[in-house]
Every structure is written in C-alpha cells, then in structure tokens.
Amino acid sequence: MDRLTSAQAQALFEAGGFIIISDLPQGSEFGIDGTYHVTRRFSGIKFLPPGLHLITWSPPPSSTPGPSTIPIKSALLRITKPKERLVLSYDTATESIATQDTDQVSIISDDHVRTLDPELAPYPFNNSEKWSQLTNLIDERILDEVVGPDGRVDGIMLVDGEEDELGELKKASLRNGKPLLDASKGEIKRLTFPKFDLRRSWRSGAVGDEVTRYSQDKSWLMGELIKKKFDNKYMRILSYLQLSFVLLLHLSSYSCLMVYKRFFALLTRSADLLQSPSSYIDTGTTNDLASLYTAFLRSLTAQFDALPETIFESELPEMDLFFLDELEYLRGNLGSGMVDWIADDRARIQEAWKLLQGVVVKWRWDLKPIVVGEAVDDDDDIEDGEYAPVVVEE
C-alpha cells in the first residue's frame, strides 16, 4: 500500500486487527490472502480488516530434510472479527503453527504491539478487492464443514472420498509429507466437501432413455444436490467452488483440483435445469438460476484473473483444454436455456460473460458470444470425456 501519514497509520492501528507470529524461521514464506513475504525480521501483519483470511506459510528449503524435498505449504483459514488480535506460534519440529488461547491473546497490549511495529507488514489492501471477489461466498458454516473448526489445512491433505481419483504415483508423493491430524478424532485429517459422482448422474432405478439423457445432462443430479444437500440454497455450489479454487491456487492442492473440476462441470452441464428449474427443484425459478449463473461467471472472471499467465505451461498442464471445453458447453447451454428468461436476467448473464471474455485474452482464448436460442452439440464429447457415464448393475 502507499506510504501512510502518521494520522492514517494511527487510524488503522485503532480500527484494524493484527496477526502476531513468533518463532517463524528466517527465509520462510509467509502469505496473507495471496500476498507473500519471504521473512527476515518478521512478526506478523498489522491493520488486518475483519473477514475471511488465508494465512499461509512454508519453511525455508534448508530447514526441510532431504536434498530435493520441496517445502509443503500449510495454511490457516480464519474469519476474524473487527480489531481481533490473532497470536500464532511456529513449531520448528512439526513445521506447524498453533493459535494461542483467548487468555493469552487478551494480554497483548497496545504498547507491546507498537514495539513489534518495525517487524509487522501492513495488510495488502491493494489486493483486498480481488481477494473478496475470490471468496465472497465462503462463510463460517462452509469452513467448519469442509476444513473443520481449527481452520488448518495443507497442500497434501486429501479430500474425503476423492482417493480413487488419485493415481498411484500421486498417492505416493502425497505420503511423503507430514499429514495433519484431526485433534478431535486422533486420525489423519481430511477435507470434507460434499460427495457426488458426475459419472453416475441419474436417479436410482432409472433405465433406458432416462439413463442416456441424464448421463449427458447433469440437471437431475444438480437438482438433487440443491434440494437435499444445500437446503435449496443455490449459492452453496459456488461456496464450495470458491473454496476448492483458493486451496488449489495457494496450496497447490491436487485433491482440491479434483473437487473444483467436479463442481465446475456440474454447473456447465446442467442444460435442462436452465430451461425448466421447477422440474428439478420444487421452488426453482429462472430468476434463481440467473442469479446463480451470473455469480458463477463473476467468480470465474476473478479466478481466471488470479491465475498466472504461465499456469497451463507449468502447474496445470492441459487444464486449459478442460476450461475451453466446459466453457463451450456452458455457452451453448445458456444460449438454449435463456430463451424464456426475462430480458433483465438475460442481460445480467450477457454482461457477466463479456467480462469473462475480457479476462481470458491473456491466454489468447477466443470465447464466442452467447447467442440466445443457439445450442452446442456436445453429446459425443460428453460420452467419451473425463466424466463419461459409468453404469452400475443394481
């Protein structure tokens, strides 16, 4: 942020919160909401605004055994209150961070915080709007469900139910890390995103044409999730999408990549739901779908903006092909699905799509405009793709 006057600094000191961290080795990487510092004399973050924060750290390479071992990124996800003082301590033996109890935090006086001021980095307000756009639908309920009340997660943590998606080599590489334990259960901790299988997206007992239809169109599956797992709260789909993306981007979590792709494809491939929401959700309206998909496109715009330009050449090879295929399905499904929508709802989608078109030009993608009444013929691709149907005898 720009250099502050003394009056501005005093105002931020009185209004903002603080993250105080002790014992973090010099040369560690410390991050707050996607902005990173390589530490020297570092005691935390000042002027912290209330809200959701992702606090990340990884030890310097020299402190990790093994000549070729890459330090694992760990994180604490926390929704802070106004003026909260979050006190953390680093344990070199476990390369983990512990939070101090409330009684200890309460004795951190203003005078003590001021003595640490030269070693406190200001919160990166220049990045706060982008961080908010990436995380605006993640609330405490979602965090508790997926990450747990302690908020601790790392890049090698598996997602419950996703193990079958990991190849044997990937499993072996994950086992080389130090797994976090769930203190309440004494077991290796896992992330708990909602489970569903895109390769079996029809109702139990369906046969023939019904299986064929809903193996291609995920509307039945999406409707069931909204009704039975998300309490008819459509935006929860995007809450999980946002959380999986943030953990993928900032912790390089392969397991979260699998989750992200499932939620992404669920949204892009539910064609009939866009045309007839009440056929799948008793209280469903096209206005509800317009709000959901407008928010989806805005989230995608923020996510694509956050991805480095070289991401598909390094960390996520071939993910660009996944995005291009799924966005083409989405474009066609919105084009055919919005035919009977009111003009204002169609305009919201068109505006959000244009913003998305603008941000992907950094990869020279040429997203075609949405044409109302035009569909995309993608049945063959869906039959043979990553989420090709798997029929199980019952």
From TrEMBL:
This is A1 cistron-splicing factor. Keywords: Membrane, Transmembrane, Transmembrane helix. Pfam families: AAR2, AAR2_1st. Belongs to the AAR2 family. The keyword Transmembrane helix applies. Residues 193-368 form the AAR2 C-terminal domain. GO terms for biological process: spliceosomal tri-snRNP complex assembly. It comes from Kockovaella imperatae. Residues 16-148 form the AAR2 N-terminal domain. The chain crosses the membrane at residues 237-260. Signal peptide: none annotated.
